[in-house]
Amino acid sequence: MDKIKHVFEQIKNFSHHQKLSDDIFEQIKDFKYWYLTKEQELLIDKLITDKELKEHYKKNGLCKNCKQPNNTSYSYCQPCNSKRFQQNFKNWTSGNHEVDEFIQKAQLEANHMDQIVEWIEYDKFEDVEYLAKGGFGTTFKAVWKDGCIDNWYYHYNQWKRISKTKVALKCLHNSQDITTDFLKE
Question: Gene3D superfamilies, alphabetically (predicted)?
C-alpha cells in the first residue's frame, strides 16, 4: 500500500502547481476550446499566463469538477479521476494483495480511459464461451454487461460505461500465487 500512497502523493503534488482562479474559469467556462474566436484566443492568452496550463486548456478544455485544464485528454481529468478511484479502493478486492495493488496503481496513474484497469467479478459477464487452453491458462470470450468506463457523468456523480462490451477472459492456472513481476509482464 506504500506504493499506492506514493503515487497518490505525486498526483496531489502535481495538482498543486499553477491553477486557474475561479474568476478566470468563469470568464472562459463556456468557450468551445476546440473552436476559439480571435477575441477568445486573445483573452485566453491574456488570462492564462502559465504556458503549460494554456497548452492543456487549448488541447483538452476544462474539467467541470476541479475547474482546471484537463492535463491528459479532453474528457479525462487525471487528478479528479485518481481521487474517484482511490475513494473506491475499499469497495472491492480480488482476494490477492499483489493483484489489488497492481490494479490500484494502474488506476491512479491512468491518463486516459484506455489505460484504466478494473477488477470485475465473474457474475458481471454473460455469454461466456471457451476459446482455447494454453500454458498459463484458459481463454474465453464473453460480454461484459456493465462495460468499460467511457467518462465521468458529472450530473449523476458516477462513471458512464459502454455496456455490453465484448471481451477476452483469461483464467490463469495457479493464480493464487501470482507475483508482481508476473503482472508487470
Answer: Intein homing endonuclease, domain IV (1.10.10.1010)
Supply φ then ψ for residue 118, to 5 degrees.
Answer: -130, 155
Q: What is the pLDDT of residues 86-98, one digit of tens each?
A: 999 999 998 888 8
> Which residues 6+ apart lie within 8 Å of 71 measured at CB?
14, 56, 60, 77, 78, 79, 111
Tell me if the pTM is above 0.85: no
**Residue 169 grid coordinates:** 477472459
Q: d(Cα 169, Cα 18) in Å, to the nearest integer?
A: 43
Distance CA 21, CA 73 (A): 21
| Residue from 117, 91, 120, 113 nearest 102 by CA | 117
Domain-wise residue ranges, the chain: 18-70, 73-119, 120-184
Q: Measured between alpha carbons, how far is 83 from 179 in angstroms, rounded to an integer?
A: 26
Rg (CA), the chain: 20
Asked if 11 and 108 touch (Cβ cutoff 8 Å), the reply is: yes
Rounded to a whole number, what is the distance in angstroms from the first to the last CA of the chain?
Answer: 20
